Amino acid sequence: MYTIIDGKKVSAERRLAIQNATKERLEKNLPAPGLAVIIVGEDPASQVYVRNKEKACLDAGFHSEVIRLPENTEEETLLSIIDRLNRDDAIDGILVQLPLPKHLKADTVIAHIDPNKDVDAFHTVNVGKIMLGEKGFAPCTPAGIMTLLEAYGIDPSGKECVVVGRSNIVGKPMAMLMLHKNATVTVTHSRTVDLPSVTRRADILIVAIGKAKFITPDMVKEGAVVIDVGMNRDENNKLCGDVDFEAVAPKTSFITPVPGGVGPMTITTLLENTLLSARKNSGQ
Ligand code: NAP
User: Fold this and answer.
1) Using omega within 30 degrees of 0 as the cis cutoff, is the peptide bond preceding 257 cis?
2) What is the CATH number of domain 140-263?
């Protein structure tokens, strides 16, 4: 019998705590945490993500600023807006929604954000802190996964953890967080030879590749914990993960569904990072 890890429930509990912390700040005459989100262009998925972030901010009682820029925005314009937000005391967190249009370099733009306001934890300073295990902003999706594991009493220490995918936003920071929790970590990718033989070793299998229902039961060890980061559409245009949930779940001890698993935790961690930044900025 397996347990479905309920990301919606854990997320709702954490968001209530964030809401209460915001109320307490206002009662003490401290400003509400402020998050600015910049979106360039009309990418439909990005528009949805930004709307969700804005709604989450408002529900938490945060100050929210969404800056929508046209597709042809020049780098200089974007950097000057980031400069203005870097100096704005009402803003504790700045997020640039990725991907950017092709003529803009994400590295240059992210490097321009004040690392103390980089609540996505993509700035090289924050990536370095993650690597070193220093205190700082948590990378939103991987940290959300750590929160889920903790909520379900799953201790990574001494466990064999396999991460499928090595992106800068999920796979690599995920591997680091698991390593800091004393898991034995293997990172796999598209050039890994005989992937199933590696994934079958995993006590904790974390999959972030962006391929619908890619992980099948033959790739999973009996009793494994399976965390599915993927967000894809299946042949019926239904949202699904990188794991074939129906087929794999009976083999697992714990598994995250898609939707309702990892997804809700990402924005929750973003809110937590913004609250953390606001606390620092008001000397708390
Ligand atoms: P990405 O940047 O496209 O990286 C995909 C990774 O998967 C790459 O490292 C790639 O290997 C690896 N990969 C691709 N095909 C593979 C295969 N057949 N076998 C083994 N590895 C393979 O993706 P991402 O940004 O990490 O996102 C991954 C998925 O998570 C997507 O579905 C995305 O929508 C979802 N996501 C969800 C959230 C959330 O909040 N729930 C957040 C972020 C991402 P190479 O490096 O060798 O190319």
Assistant:
1) no
2) 3.40.50.720
